[in-house]
Amino acid sequence: MVVSFFLAFSFFPVSLLQHEHEGRIRLGQTKAESFTPVTTGVKNETNQENKELATRLDTYVKKQLAMDNFHGTVLVASGDTILLKRGYGYADGKKKIPNAPNQKFAIGSLTKAFTAMAILQLHEQHLLDINQPIERFFPDYPFAKEVTIHHLLTHSSGLPRNRGSKEYEELTLLYPPGTGQNYSNEGYILLGKIIEQVSGMSYGDYITTHIFKPLHMDDSGFDLSRRRVLNKASGHKKIQGVWVALGMDYGSRFSSGGLYSTVEDLYKWDRALYTGKLVSEPLRKRMFTPQMKEYGYGWHIQKEADRIIAEHGGYVLGYSAEIVRDMTSKSVVILLSNHGDTGMKEMAETMLEMVEEAKQTSPEKGAEKKPIL
């Protein structure tokens, strides 16, 4: 399990890029070329080491299910090879519908990485500058002259985690921007409002047009509570020792936690983050550069020896989500659960270590590996 962390980097602003990557998605335009990750199913069937590892991973998840620690879907991959992809438990307990890899789950705060990517796309199109104060967008907010978009992205704005019943005009900062860090859903909600102002699109439509469609994330979208969303897992919460199906207006979480997806689609997202498909390399590197408390743009960043780990969890009523990415080996563990009281970071990190330990005995052991940004 990853236990050591990379100490905070000092703050430095990102200068406005003076170039546009040829062929990158422009506002209002969808990238035409296809993007499909290689799953190498034939390799999985013939590689005995992968089959044995998949069995160990599956056995581990089944133990978690038996202990009532996990109900949902799992995808574990080593690079372009999917080692394990399956569902556990029920998507709908009453109807006895089993979870499957294409089941849709609310992903909670995993949404924040997509919000950050949208901001970086607009920055690269020169439609905003992440170093500028947000006064341009919110002239009536008393803190808008001090807070920059960068502060919102890194949770260093001084805004509270949630504002409760207060209006933004009534908020006071917890500390001067850039001098501390406090995880803030409100900051990421403001980023969504900026995306809408700049693009002229709703937040959900922007993410669908400029991220989901180019990556063929066809089973992902905004607001799982919409009636037209098919094949979605029912959210559950444990009440007096019993899992009870329930839900909420997931769209109310907006750009801080309002998206839904599948493990298969999130694997496409993981693969795309190693490419220039969505944004140029300098901005991708910035996304995964830790600031205060090891938070980049929408990702927790950890460093242990020669490994860089990008991680984020998510929770909304009835659902939990977790993604852990080893950016050195390009392995990934994606967990989506419709039993929302279960924390899954430790489970995901344990599974990632199982993958990495298996690599140490493979023929490729000793090959030099560097983080890929």
The CATH architecture comes to 3-Layer(aba) Sandwich
Distance between the termini: 22 Å
List unreliable stretches of 5+ residues.
Answer: 1-46, 366-373
Determine the strand fraction and express it as a percent band: 15-25%
Say which CATH homologous superfamily is assigned. DD-peptidase/beta-lactamase superfamily
How many distinct folded domains? Answer: 1
- Overall pLDDT score: 85
Main sheet specs: 6 strands, antiparallel
Beta strands, count = 13
SS field, number of helical segments: 10
Classify the secondary structure makeup into a structural class. alpha+beta
CATH topology: Beta-lactamase
Q: Strand order within the widest sheet?
A: 2-1-13-12-11-10
Oligomeric state of the chains present here:
single chain
Based on CA atoms alone, the radius of gyration comes out at: 20 Å
Pfam families: Beta-lactamase
Organism: Aneurinibacillus danicus
Main location: membrane
Protein name: Serine hydrolase
